[in-house]
Each structure stands twice: as C-alpha cells, then as structure tokens.
Amino acid sequence: MAGRRRRRTRTGTELSREAYVDAAVNLIENRGASVLSARTLAAAVGADASALYRHFTGVDDVVRAVADRMIGLGLDRWTPGSDWLESLAGLGRVLFAVYAQDFPRAGLAVAGRATGLPNELRAVELTLGLLRKGGFDDESAAKWFGAIADIALGQAMLQSAIVTLPAEIQDADKASWQTLSTRLPDDEHPHTQAAAPHLGEYMVQPSFELVLELMLKGLAASAP
User: Fold this and answer.
1) SS3 call for 15
2) If we measure between CA atoms, which residue out of 109, 101, 85 comes closest to residue 33?
3) Of 59, 15, 55, 56, the residue nearest 41 (C-alpha)
4) Which tens digits make up the pLDDT trace of 28-38?
5) b or e along 94-126 (b: 16 or more beta carbons within 10 Å of the residue's beta carbon)?
C-alpha cells in the first residue's frame, strides 16, 4: 500500500498527497485556480497525469485538500487566549491571515469549500468547544459556529479579492474613495459629504478587525 501511495517522480522527488497540494497552491498563487487540471498538476510534480488518481479522486479533491491545508496552517499558528472570547478572536485572526494575506489567490479559491478532512474537523471541534465554554448549548453553539465561519472566511474572501486585483485597479478604487468629496453634487448628499474624509480613510483598509469586534460583542451579549 505504501508503495502505491508514495512513488518517485521523473526527477526523483517522492510523490505524495502533500506534493500535489504544494503544487496546487503554487499554481493557484502564480496562475490562478482556473489553471488547475490533471495535466498542469502532473507537470508541476513531474509525473504522468494518471498518477493523480492514485492519491485523489480528481482535481476537485485536490482543491479540497488545499482548503484543509490552509485551515491547518491557521490552527498550527493559533494560541489559546485567556478566555473563550479571546481564543475565538485569535482563531479568527490567524485564519484571516492565512487566507487573505499569505495565500490570497488560494484563499479566494477555497474559502467557500467544505473539506470534511482532518483540519476542518479540528477547527469545528475547537470552535464548538470554545462556544460551549461560553455557556452555549449544542444547538446554539452550532448556530454560532456557522456565523463565525461565515464572518471570518467571508471577510478573508473579500480581502483576497481586493489584493489580487491588478495594482492599477486597486489604486483607482482607493482614489475613488479618497476623492469622494470633490465629486459629490452640492447639497444632495449632506451625510456623505460630512463623512467623506473618514470614508476615504476607512474604506481603503480591511474592515476585518471592526467586524470581528462586532461579532465578539454579539457573542458576549448572547452568551447564557
């Protein structure tokens, strides 16, 4: 069995699930998720295209493994806080960093995927355990778990989508907010006119920390 799972490529590199995941992450980050195929992965690992199916059921199975790898990276960086809320905040921050900062193209491609693999199960168990420490029952913990996951990964997807835009488009979008006050019709948008300088500051930076703060306050207020 081990011989089937770990073979040598044409260059002598050991072929494994991890080698395919490494290759997939590199391909996505450098060329985009749409380039993934049995052929491109084979070229990246130095093996025949058919070798993929000794380790995965197909390319989508590789994508799920990439998603699970990213969850695992976040979990490995996480350090528990002094209480359940601080621990949840830290978990959200490390996952956001992996998806939105370290691997933004891969993060955008896989943040919406369910993996059913070990690292995702670790994250589910850990998060539910923290919510139970906060006093939530099983049903409430499950409900809040879904909301927490959506907030953290949704914010990561949004930021990943922004930072992977061409630099000139990012600059133009920022300039649109920063010059907003000069383009508003007189007296037609008084609230926007008054807030325009602040919009020019806040709309060009990630809102993750503010959203995280809102979520934590909601959890604290809802805790039994």
Assistant:
1) strand
2) 109
3) 59
4) 999 999 999 99
5) bbbbbbbeebbbbbbbbbebebebebbeebeeb
Distance from C-alpha of 213 to C-alpha of 167, rounded to nearest angstrom: 29
Which residues does 65 contact at the CB level (< 8 Å), separation at least 6? Answer: 17, 20, 21, 24, 56, 115, 117
The DSSP element (H or E) to which 71 belongs, if any, is helix 59-77
- Which neighbouring-strand residues pair with 158? none
pLDDT digits (tens, 9 = 90+) for 114-158: 999 999 999 999 999 999 999 999 999 999 999 999 999 999 999
Q: What pTM, to 2 d.p., does this model score?
A: 0.89
Q: Please give the domain boundaries of the chain with CATH numbers for all domains.
A: 65-166+188-222 (1.10.357.10)
Q: DSSP state, 153?
A: H
